[in-house]
Amino acid sequence: MSLPPLVEPAAELTVDEVRRYSRHLIIPDVGMAGQKRLKNAKVLCVGAGGLGSPALMYLAAAGVGTLGVIDFDVVDESNLQRQIIHGQSDVGRPKAESAAATVREINPLVDVVIHNMALTNDNVMEIFSGYDLIVDGTDNFATRYMVNDAAVLLGKPYVWGSIYRFDGQASVFWAEHGPCYRCLYPEPPPPGMVPSCAEGGVLGVLCASIGSIQVNEAIKLLTGIGDPLVGRLMIYDALEMKYRDVKVRKDPECVLCGKNPTVTQLLDDYEAFCGAISDEAAEAASGSTITARELKAMQDNGDDIFLVDVREINEYEIVSIPGATLIPKGEFLNGSALEKLPQDKRIVLHCKSGARSAEALAIVKNAGFSDAVHLGGGVLSWVKTVDPSLPSY
Ligand SMILES: [Zn+2]
Prior knowledge:
Elements (H helix, E strand, L loop, with lengths): L14 H6 L1 H4 L5 H10 L1 E5 L5 H11 L3 E5 L24 H12 L4 E5 L8 H6 L3 E4 L4 H14 L3 E7 L2 E7 L7 H4 L12 H4 L5 H18 L8 E6 L4 E6 L22 H5 L4 H7 L3 E2 L1 H10 L3 E5 L3 H6 L6 E2 L2 H5 L12 E5 L4 H12 L6 E3 L2 H8 L8
This protein binds zinc ion.
The site of zinc ion has 8 residues, from helix 8.
């Protein structure tokens, strides 16, 4: 499938621009016309993290005239292993600002628009409407569905990517010409089923593999060359070193882009749609959540508690709360954890942030441990409020 270029060419390139982009200009498929289209293009990158870093850097180098970057977060030391647009001296700085500074350093001819904020229901339509194309570098399902819905409602294409450990995926979603994200994934995964990179890790260089596919597709769409990744899902396995692509068909019953759509505007609450934690977990955690200081006090008092860390072993090895026994959440899901729990002690569960432990708490309470509790905020809040000398991740 070939598609017409998304962007009209700019009137001309300056002498500086001709010099800078000469290696593009001598490619017949790009040429002067293609480079002028890039100059006129407005691209928004959602997130200046793992995928956003290489995406923004190559889009800037390629000469995309206007580059928007939206991110609400600040640079953390644990980002630097993969988010190469930021450096050591940027730690603590807003990511959008840090990314914009790098873009300007790579290519001062790019007009960078900084959106130092979270993308929300209230601003997504207005922000997206100022751009020709969106590059989605988000890492959570709530934002992904919001990005998709806004792009479909505005009739805009976007380039999607996702990464986890050694596995990456990418596609172009453009409802006018092919499927949308909801055609591929009609329902968000059940809460807690799909671990995030913060929970499961990601090989740093995987971000470049997938981010560069996203930029490649962005350039093709903007200039109208090649066979875009519309209606195809690219799947990359870095360990096997294999790329394969599978067809993704437009779902005629898609609630958003199908024949009889029922979603005709943004949802009120994407977090709720994706269920930050399940109803059962929320119910179990209600009234049974303790703080890190309360846990410390219980330990100092010599209370008869059994502290269980429901994270994975790799996480446990990075940082753990003294006295905790590791029983990963999967053992609660398959039931094998229950026989490891003492009947005569109060069960206290914790994970990284409190989401997985709330899921496990629901199972433990159902099994009759009615006075069990979990640590709100998980090991992260323990590090923050009880022992800042421990590493965070
Ligand atoms: Zn759809």
